[in-house]
Each structure stands twice: as structure tokens, then as C-alpha cells.
Design a protein that fits this description.
The chain has 287 residues and is of the alpha/beta class. It is 47% helix and 10% strand. The structure holds phenylalanine and fe (iii) ion.
Length: 287
Amino acid sequence: MEMDAENPPIGAGADWTIMQGWDAYSEDDHAMWDRLFERQAAMLEGRVVPEFLQGLGILRMDRPGIPEFGALNERLRAATGWEVVAVPGLVPDRVFFDHLANRRFPAGRFIRTPAQEDYLQEPDIFHDVFGHVPLLANPVFADYMQAYGRGGLRADGMGAIAKLARLYWYTVEFGLIQTDAGLRLYGAGIVSSNAESHFALEDPSPNRIGFDLRRIMRTRYRIDDFQQSYFVIDSFEQLLAQTTQTDFAPLYADLVALPDYDTDTIAPEDRVLTRGTQAYARQKEEE
Ligand code: PHE
Ligand code: FE
């Protein structure tokens, strides 16, 4: 969410938005989208929450080529009043929160190159649009994202952005959800990554722990590799209700005095679904 500069780059508006410039995408760019899309869509069948696949359908994202934001936004606005806006990359926290609070999702417009096909540091259009946008067509998740934006502006005034960011990380980016058919993925950071989709759902290494607001806000996360713990919600309704019906101000105040949990810790109060072996992380350390 952070960028070095505090001012928008030349050519960007005060809200950091730029034109998508859809005509500038090359044949190779579109082919990259199609390749990633096909691979993920096939793999996510039976692994992702059904609302995600419904979103792909509602937004007609199964058409070939990088989506054009104008056409995408017509469908998205009709579904939930959200829209996607193009930004040059990561934007300052307040700018990001303000967009979400107004039902605008800021998305990178560039697409990864073949060398970055399986791993990249900065979110590209495939992560931002394929990963995040389908669930914005779901009314409950759409409301959660807006509430998060408002909560972000509020957290900023209380010096609590770092704590609140953990909630985004462990839900919007790396969340798992329990469904009648079993455990499913919904976090954008997982669903846009082939390898982590398998890892998060099927690997015995990571912990899978029941959602708990306070617990999550105490938990560090890693940005360099697969997560060591995932948190599991029961439903989007639960996520929305628990976050909007809780005043975070006293929570932030408590957290100042409480130590952080490490990325692999199981706490005594945890509702543990999987006690991870952490074999993957341990092997990585030895390398
Ligand atoms: N209830 C939170 C607060 O009091 C706002 C919020 C809602 C934050 C939903 C995140 C998600 O600040
Ligand atoms: Fe993301």
C-alpha cells in the first residue's frame, strides 16, 4: 500500500488515478493474461469459494484478453456500485483507503512478463483484477471492502494502520473460508497464485486457524514467501458483521500493550483446524 513518494507521479490525478490505456497492451500482454486466466480458472474449480466463480460470470471476465476497465465497470457498477480505477502501482495508505471507502478499487495496469510468470513483488493487473475484482461483485464482500476503507481512514488517525493492515492481509489477501462443501480459498493473494492455491488449501505445512479479529491484529505476516498461518472465516456475513459491529478504537488501545504473535505461532485460545507441520518453512530456512 505504500509508495516512496507522497505526491502522485506526473500524469496521475490527485487521487493517483491514471488512464488504463487499454489500447497500449501488446498481443503478448493479452496472451499472458489468457494463459494465467486459463490456468487459474481451471485450478480454482472446486478450490475457490463459489461466489468468486459467480463473480467471474457476472463480470464476464472469462472473455479472452485483458479486461477493459470501462466495460468491466459497467457490469461491476450494476452489481454492487463498485468500480475499478487504474493506478501506477502501490499508492499511499490514505489514498488507498479513500478509494475503498468510495467503492473504487485501485488496480495496477501493467501485466507481468514471462520471467515473472510465477512470482512477482508488486501487484500487477492479473493479481489486482483477477484476484480482487470477482468478489467485489458480491454484495456482502463489497460492503466489507468499503467498511475496511472507512476503517483505514479512522485507523490512520489513531496510529493503528499497521495493526489494521494485518486484517486486510489475513482476509482480503490470504483468507480461507469454510463452506458446506469444505474449505475454500477467497484471498486474492492466494487465488492469483497457482502455487499458493495448492499450498494454502492442501499442504500440511501451514496452520489453519479460525478467524479471530484480535488474534489476527496481533499476528505478523510474511511478504517474502507462502504464509505460515491462514485464518478461516465461516462466511462473508460473519466477516462483515464482526468487523463492522466492533469498535476498533479500544482494540487498538489494548494491542499497544500486547506482544505480537509470530507467523507460525499457535496461541492457547486458537480454534485450530490444522496444526501445521511447518515443514515447508523449515526446509526453506535450511537452504
Ligand atoms: N469497525 C471498524 C472500526 O471501528 C471499521 C472496520 C470495519 C474496519 C470493517 C475493518 C473492516 O474502526
Ligand atoms: Fe492485493
